[in-house]
Amino acid sequence: xxxxxxxxxxxxxxxxxxxxxxxxxxxxxxxxxxxxxxxxxxxxxxxxxxxxxxxxxxxxxxxxxxxxxxxxxxxxxxxxxxxxxxxxxxxxxxxxxxxxxxxxxxxxxxxxxxxxxxxxxxxxxxxxxxxxxxxxxxxxxxxxxxxxxx
Length: 150
Hints:
α3 packs antiparallel against α6. The chain is an all-alpha fold. It has one domain. The protein contains 6 helices and no strands. Its main location: membrane. It is a multi-pass membrane protein. One of its GO terms (biological process) is tetrapyrrole metabolic process. It comes from Xaviernesmea oryzae. Belongs to the TspO/BZRP family.
């Protein structure tokens, strides 16, 4: 199969699922009523940041699928994606702040393990996951802060 087509499909699917999860689990009144830390960014920042990250995640997923589909790195990529997609429904949909924190901490671990593993075989994929890992670390701090403040 054509590499460019596979890459575009991965990116489109990841962006599409992320978009559907986002519109299905909006912050809403419950989130607005929570006490948030002073470093909480404005709500409008999340969609463009996640969109850019989902493009990178999809690009990396396509590279793995094409070159290392049966690898441990591919399994970690799938695990991080499932954890990523589980967080918004838990946090916003079910309002389970504590459980969402467990999920996002697990996501961070998967991202770190993926970066360490990919650094040996596919440095570009590892490097593309660094901004993702940094954003998830920030999101983890937000999740934990909201849990403590509320």
